[in-house]
Amino acid sequence: MPTFRSPSPGRAAALALVVAATAYAIALSVLARDPDFGIVEPLFLFAMLGVVFPLLAWLCTLKPQRPATPLPEPRQLPRVVLYLAAFALVVLGWGFSSINAHFPDEPAQSIVQLVVKLVTMVLLPAVLFLGWKFGAKPTLPWQRLLLTFVVMSLAYLAMQSVFGRGLVTLRELAPSAATLAWAIPACFGWQTIEAGLCEEVLFRRVLQEKLAIAGGSQVAAVAWASLLFGLAHAPGLWLRGGHLMEGVAHATPAWAIAYSIVMIAPAGIAFGVLWARTRSLWLIVPLHGMVDLLPQLAPFIRAWSGHA
């Protein structure tokens, strides 16, 4: 019988990049059919999150102490992808819609969502795919990891301050200095757990690592994981009314898939680069919390203080 071999790392990387680029181009063309859709914002977003920040992440992690080879684990990739699909449909789609309906008030809604995320994005993946072995020996000393965290955090905060909506919504809310004094560290801690720990364990530690093991290419793993990271948000965009926040009155599955690829998938590239080159959850988990701090600060204050 003929034997089938995995493609070489170079071919695996080329295939992943071609598929990701093709998916992005098709998705962009789908969104561009809407006459109210502007192409400048998504292209700028891709330039920043898909090129500039991954390049900065690569520069910050030059000259590692040891090679970032895939961890010695079972491949398990089909099981991981199947789990991710079920998670996207059942939890991000139907599950969170049900939570929002049964717990309409804050902060109860956020607390229930956090519990569900911890169970489905950390606890179950750890049991099913990791054997509770979350970490690996980082390829950089803690001083370099700390420097990378500071540089990447400042870069993200600078971009969000100039181009994001976080400061605008915060100014509209006009919280007092006393409120900001407790809300900023509390929101950072919350986002580090709710977004950082949950998303990085599932999408980087589990999904991207299994992709790297299966394909033998870190580049391919980053590309595939970023694409799947975006696609996992499509059910939620369609079923939970995320389209309304984007000015789309009637969302379709095609719109949700296209939007997730164009507007969400690029956000995972820099984190994929950082995981591939450092193997440090201690870096990417709090960095993810810092990235979400400014956009989520005003909603966090409203949820936990009843600030109108």
UniProtKB/TrEMBL annotation:
Pfam families: Rce1-like. Residues 190-293 form the CAAX prenyl protease 2/Lysostaphin resistance protein A-like domain. Its EC number is 3.4.-.-. Coiled coil: none annotated. Keywords: Hydrolase, Membrane, Transmembrane, Transmembrane helix. This is CPBP family intramembrane glutamic endopeptidase. The chain crosses the membrane at residues 43-60, 80-99, 111-132, 144-167, 173-190, 211-234, 254-276. One of its GO terms (molecular function) is hydrolase activity. It comes from Lysobacter yangpyeongensis.
